[in-house]
Write a structure and sequence with these properties.
The protein is an alpha+beta fold. The chain has a single domain, classed as Beta Barrel (Cyclophilin), CATH 2.40.100. 23% of the residues lie in helices and 18% in strands. The protein has 7 helices and 8 strands, in the order H-E-E-H-E-E-H-E-E-E-H-H-H-E-H. An 8-stranded antiparallel β-sheet has the order 3-4-6-5-7-2-1-8.
Length: 246
């Protein structure tokens, strides 16, 4: 696996191509760049009225369950997208394809997921990007341990379906021009995320074109020990109790 210093060297090369300047010790950014398509398709639109001010989502995984709490005021467009993805069952059977943490890596970083295992389903969402959010004041959160954020490319309005949980203080992602503003946080089960198999590090993420074209069939053959999400569902009691806050 690459050391943090080697990661920095890779980033320096990318910066020559015009990316935003990071700190010298930064690991690679949580990229979720989509593949081009000949004909763009619209993903199903969410009804904004269906999105509570705050709601919880339970992720059942191969290592146990964890729950995230989504805050609409932290990231309105992000909260709306997560709500529609969970409602559509998008995250069911998704693999955790990027797990960067100790003991396999020199330093903890993050865990990322959000490429559907069925390429036909992924094809419907791949270009369905959402507009950037620019929270201010108390609504602007930091990428600290347990906070959940969308992956994105350097292009504006490039968030889509991929999200990540920070394993540690990743506040270097916080500057507004980078667009990595958290939309939620882990309420319970952070220890489950800590146990996810990280032996492949960022290698599966480097294969995103193959993952998007071939889905879980590719991952199960090339990276058979990846952990996965069995099912993602709303914690209904919380979702209902927040309806009055809309």
């Amino acid at each position: 696996m690459l050391s943090r210093r080697q990661y920095s060297g890779m980033l320096a090369t990318v910066l020559l191509l015009g990316c935003t300047q990071p700190q010298a010790s930064d690991p690679p950014l949580p990229m979720g760049a989509p593949l081009p398509k000949a004909a763009k398709e619209e993903a199903p639109a969410a009804d904004a009225g269906d999105v509570p001010a705050k709601f919880q989502v339970k992720f059942e995984t191969t290592k146990g369950d964890f729950v995230i709490e989504v805050h609409r005021d932290w990231s309105p467009n992000g909260a709306k997208r997560i709500h529609e993805l969970v409602k559509a069952g998008f995250y069911d059977d998704c693999r955790f394809f990027r797990v960067i943490r100790k003991p396999w890596e020199e330093n903890d970083f993050m865990v990322q997921w959000g490429i559907h295992g069925d390429p036909k389903v992924m094809d419907k969402w791949r270009d369905a990007n959402i507009k950037d959010d620019q929270p201010t004041g108390e609504n602007r959160q930091s990428n600290q341990r347990g906070f959940v954020t969308f992956a994105r490319s350097p292009a504006p309005n490039s968030r889509s379906t991929q999200i990540f949980v920070n394993y540690t203080d990743n506040s270097f992602l916080d500057p507004a021009q980078r667009g990595f503003n958290p939309f939620g946080k882990v309420l319970s089960g952070m220890e489950v995320l800590d146990k996810l198999n990280g032996e492949y590090g960022g290698a599966p993420s480097d294969e995103q074109p193959s993952i998007q074209r071939k889905g879980n069939a590719f991952l199960d053959k090339a990276f058979p020990k990846l952990d996965s999400i069995k099912k993602a569902t709303f914690v209904k009691s919380v979702a209902k109790s927040e309806e009055g806050e809309k």
